[in-house]
Amino acid sequence: MWLNQKETVQSPFSLFRDETTRLIFLMRLLPVFVLLSLAFAWKLWISTRLYPLVPFLGWIPAFPYPLDYFVLALFCCLLIVFVFRPRSTVLNQLILFVFTGLFLQDQSRLWPSFYMYFFFFLLLFRYTGKAGEKDASRVLNSMRFTVAAIYFWGGVQKLNPYFFNEVFPWFIEPITNVLPFTIPNLPLIALFAAVFEILFGVALLTKRFRKIAFYDAMLMHALIFVCIGPLRNGWNNSSWMWGLSMAVQTWVLFYKAPAFDFKKMFAPPYSDCIPQGLAVLLIGILPVLNNVNRWDAALSFNVYTGNVNYAQIHIRPDAAGKVPAALTAFVSHHPDRAVLDINAWSLHAFNANAYPENRIFKAVLAALCPKMPEGSVYLYVEEKSGWFFPKSTQVYGCGKI
């Protein structure tokens, strides 16, 4: 059985003697994982790059060189100092300020991993430790809710035929390729995997089923590491690094922890509970809108599901030679056209897939259009399906963006 709160506090040999100790330990780990993720995708956070920045508002300027490198270095320094000064509210607020500014400069930076890290810092915004266990419990329960919601929505988004029939068989190839036999009924196993993730996301917040849900989560992350980790040629390092960080954070948040209490998330003073309300709204509720294509896939933790917007740029064969030299490695040639793979470009540049929304793809097209002959390039977007409609294809030319 799981230890109750009284037992946890009275255990002197426990790594997490109380909620405050647990929270401080997690606060030291959080910037480490952000730094590791930045290390794999540092080019995403500078302005001097070929892949276009897409600001939230058109008037938000990008940092010119070398200021963009300086801001990234400053961000890293703030994170390093936070490891040693986790109780500093000033440091936390500076990190949030820089995070917000960099997000506003480029929507492509809103990967699920960085979105989650940002929210963890946001939940720490009013944490001072002055209220003792009550203060720590409010923050930790909020983080537990956030992690459980991420698992829940990650499973919900996988409930589609593209995951069952395409993504899951591809995903587990590192395992199936070494087995001396064929695994039957892979789509059925994929359905089980999606439901499995939904159920343990919910069960983590229960007292009775938390223990089995915890070990289920650890098993899933081990499988992810095997299937898309370094053994798969490091093709998407950012993704497996996020998976490892999720595993560790789940361990810190749930291992021998007190029972989850939703009410403790909103313990007074109520002025300190705005971040908790945002977590419930933005992570707990709004991802449902992704299933009617009214909320971004990345912000809905729609990852490795096979059901996100996907785009290619088609180029007339006679204009293929005009493609910038830095992009030729991502162009495939066909008798009637050349095709620029935006995902391949993004993977090469940032160690992650392109942010899968039409406005990002249109910005990529807009960046390419001035370099190409008029009427020679078109953007083809296969838009994700929803609960009430199938996938569809949209075509955009340089004059329609």
General description of the model:
This protein is α+β, with helices and mostly antiparallel strands. The protein has two domains: 5-41 and 111-300, no CATH class; 310-400, 2-Layer Sandwich (Alpha-Beta Plaits). The protein has helices at 5-9, 19-40, 67-84, 89-105, 112-123, 133-157, 161-171, 173-176, 186-203, 210-228, 237-254, 262-265, 274-285, 342-350, 358-368, and strands at residues 310-315, 331-334, 337-341, 377-383, 392-397. The chain has a five-stranded antiparallel β-sheet with strand order 2-3-1-4-5. α2 (19-40) packs antiparallel against α3, α6 (133-157) runs antiparallel to α9 (186-203) and α10 runs antiparallel to α11 (237-254). The N and C termini lie far apart (58 Å).
Task: Indicate the percent of residues in helices.
Answer: 40-55%
Question: Any low-confidence stretches, pLDDT <50, length ≥5?
Answer: 1-13
Cα gyration radius (Å): 22 Å
The quaternary organization reads as: single chain
3D shape: globular
Our count of helices gives 15
- Major sheet strand order: 2-3-1-4-5
| Span of the ends, CA to CA | 58 Å
Summing up helix and strand content along with how strands pair, one would put the structural category as alpha+beta
In total, the number of strands is 5
How much of the polypeptide forms β-strand, as a percent range? 5-15%
- Count up the domains: 2
> Biggest sheet: strands, sense, closure?
5 strands, antiparallel
Elements, N to C (H/E) = HHHHHHHHHHHHHEEEHHEE
- Average per-residue pLDDT, rounded, comes to 91
